[in-house]
Amino acid sequence: MAHLTRSATVVFVIGDDRLKVLDAHGGRTLWSVPVGHPVIGSEGMGLAVAGDAVVTAVAQYTADASSHAVVAARGAADGKQRWSTALPTLLAQGTVSTLTLAASAKVVLVTAYATSGQAPSASAPHGSVFALAADTGKELWRTRLNVASAFGGHAVAGDTVVVGWADVNAYFYAFDAATGKQRWRAPLVEDGTRSLGVGADTVYFCGAHRAEPGGSNTDQAVYALELATGKQRWRAHEQVYGEAWGPVGGGLVLVTDASHGGVWALDSRTGKTVWSIADMPKPTVLAANSTTAFLVAGGDDNGKNQTVHALRIAD
Q1: pTM
Q2: What domains are defined for the chain?
């Protein structure tokens, strides 16, 4: 399975040990380069756009069988490598099972979740977070989190990094992108969030909000939090747990329901439903621009026989 992202004019695809760049209008391959073979398949690869560069991350094993990642940036226009950084051993114990990547024009965020055969604890945390300078690949900071599972979306928005893993107390975190200083933490859901939508000043996600540590999860819903403080702005669309994407199309947040199917477009300011499609099974958003969202839906549990949909989200 490949990873896909896009800029205004091209589509980036990483899979089968290569990074390919396609013309967004006609699909013609503009350039293609090898990126190395991930030792754990597609879960061991990451792809993101950082300004005028495309960044890849590939999990590999070192000679002593520990896990590390090679992160590299290339010019989006020509594929020429700008820098390559081999992160040190990601975790002191265990094997990396999931590697993700998010980026802005200034910061590249690498997250790695490892399995070690023991429950996560303060002495054996399962999550590692690295922040790199987007222009040089130099490490800015790193931290480890006592997270319960690999399930979580991550994002870089302005000078803030949001790590959507839920820790063992069901909190997720925002950090200063330059220094790694924690800015806030917010209750989420025990298994994390599938994805995060991040706007200029708001974080959007599907989850079950916990009122207090150790308390019972509330009903599943879509939430909007202030990016600066983590305070809740609104809660909407009860009993939905899936992906949140956006804002797109002049202020819409797209939400998909992983359990029952369906796509909803919510007003990013209020959470009110603008439009919805209820009969779309297992939808996943691939990309979106100001007018159109591209999704895959249906198929089996292995992702085969899916149908690609293009939805007009705004005029």
Answers
A1: 0.83
A2: 1-146 (2.40.128.630), 190-315 (2.130.10.10)
